[in-house]
User: Which sequence fits this backbone?
């Protein structure tokens, strides 16, 4: 009986606990990425690095520096918004990053859509109203400019 039990365990180990090998053909990798993709990818990598910082305040400061950049790609803006909601604990920190991005001259419609779809992640109604008003102010021409 013991021999059958040991044989079954040995078969289990051989079959189920094997290493796997992944082979990648280098010819499938893109040769030269487009310049805008390089900047976007670096910014996304930077956002991911900031996301791993230990303290909420450090993450907020890093996200805010990125949100102030005028040359942010739409992909980087969306990634920043998602990281803000996922990695920041305090609502005021989230709101500060979102308002900084909204007031950025490079704020894009993809980022606007991401914020609007994620607005329920904010707990307080006045925070939601402040974000919506900021988006409206950016999208509506100022009537006093005439």
Assistant:
């Amino acid at each position: 009986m013991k021999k059958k039990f040991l044989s079954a365990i040995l078969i289990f180990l051989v079959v189920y606990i094997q290493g796997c090998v992944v082979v990648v053909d280098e010819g499938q990798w893109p040769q030269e990425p487009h310049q805008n993709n390089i900047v976007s990818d670096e910014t996304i990598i930077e956002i991911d690095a900031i996301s791993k910082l230990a303290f909420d305040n450090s993450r907020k400061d890093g996200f805010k520096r990125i949100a102030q950049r005028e040359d942010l790609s739409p992909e980087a803006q969306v990634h920043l918004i998602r990281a803000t909601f996922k990695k920041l604990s305090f609502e005021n920190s989230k709101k500060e990053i979102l308002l900084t991005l909204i007031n950025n001259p490079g704020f894009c419609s993809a980022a606007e859509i991401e914020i609007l779809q994620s607005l329920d992640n904010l707990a307080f109604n006045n925070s939601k109203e402040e974000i919506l008003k900021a988006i409206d102010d950016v999208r509506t021409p100022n009537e006093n400019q005439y």
Q: What stands out?
A: DSSP finds seven helices and no strands in the chain.
